[in-house]
Structure prediction request, 499 residues.
Amino acid sequence: MDWLELGKDAFLAFYTTMLVLVSMYGLHRYVLVYLYYRHRRNAPKAAGEFAELPVVTIQLPMYNERAVARRIIESTCEIDYPREKMQIQVLDDSTDDTVEIASKVVQEMRQRGFDMEYIHRDNREGFKAGALTYGLATAKGEFVTIFDADFIPAPDILRRSINYFTDPRVCVVQARWDHLNRTDSLLTRTQAIFLDGHFIVEHIARNRSERFMSFNGTAGTWRKSAIDDAGGWQHDTLTEDLDLSYRAQLKGWKFVFLPELTAPAELPPEMNAFKAQQHRWTKGGAQTTLKLLPKVMFSRASLKVKVEAFFHLTGFTMHLYMCLLVLMLYPAMMLRGGGESMWRILFDLGVFAMATISANVFYIAGQLSTRGSFIEACKYMPLMMALGVGMCFSNAKAVLEAFFGQKSDFVRTPKYGDLQLAAEARPRKKKTRWVPYVEFVVGIYMTACLIWCVVMGGKALITAPFLAIFAFGFFYVSSLSFLAEKAIKHAPKPQKQTV
Prediction:
């Protein structure tokens, strides 16, 4: 038996399996785009109007949000809703001067006649989920609206959404996120495209085709009784919003998504803040999958719901597949020796089209809906591909931490200009600064693969443009990570704000 030949065949078979797995999730993106275009005109309608507006509790969870605490409290007080029907809770777990800032603003608003409660915990037990639960104990409203500290809610957000709750089956009305700093940099533009695709294509496709969707943790309103019925906010995952969303829908509750109702917020302006956010979302998604996917699969939900839930909840595994494919790329090319058949090349390209071009189709659909220009939609697609691949090692690390049960704190996303707090938000027990070095080395590796393809010429040149994009992605992500570290290191300590 030729063990060397057997090993070669096994390696190529594994490589092909990874390609096929990635292509399956690419095919799922095409399905979402199809469902979006099929159902996008089926806008939800309120069952009626409340004869008397119900009491709503607005919760503002925050932790060391000195840069935006005053803004979110004042913006919330501008919401057009009867004061006697609106309770505002500032749920502040801060350990810095946000405590003085927020409590001072709350005092000012109370003097103006607002029913506002300042709640400060001296611990972060349960993190955001714990703060929300703590607030519910004194919440007066039948409905609970949540805004993270960096949001600026529109004055009419409650009046435009509350009547959807006249349907007793509705437990959540979710608004779409908009972006205050979309055009600040290539990084913020790219993040905006990511989120637009998530909200426009994913949410509309899932919600209007009667599949499970997720609450996004903010800019939405819950029926308080539905929170209790689904088991309340739980903090055994980092994505308490996704967790509660699935538990509520398994109980038969209905979600409503309103894409035309927007709430603008800040995008992370630098790479390490973006990585921290993505790490939390990815790890929390993996934790939620381990917790709930078996329950979904053995529930009485329809087959279409179970299939969509499977791809939705396991989508994070794409980061692992991409890491493996990147690492195996050069050995796979060498083992083939540039002499693969045209059929093999066509197969690889077909699989690649499923995996990569599907993402472009997905995000272009989102941009056409929000921006209305095909050229504008296409302009940033190469950078989208580059950033998506460049982030795969950082996100794969988050997935593995979830798989192996490694606990971690709920790391807040630093707000704009908040470099000192970005440094404070970094986990202290286990440093993760080795990740940018790995990304930089992989960028060199991708460059070597690109050079090899150019030297080989012929059919190998077909993959050269994609290798160039991948190499750029790893260099882009790692270099911005290094620059962010340098900026944090040299940032002056913030001056205590006057309150």
Remarks:
- Residues 326 and 413 are 28 Å apart (CA to CA).
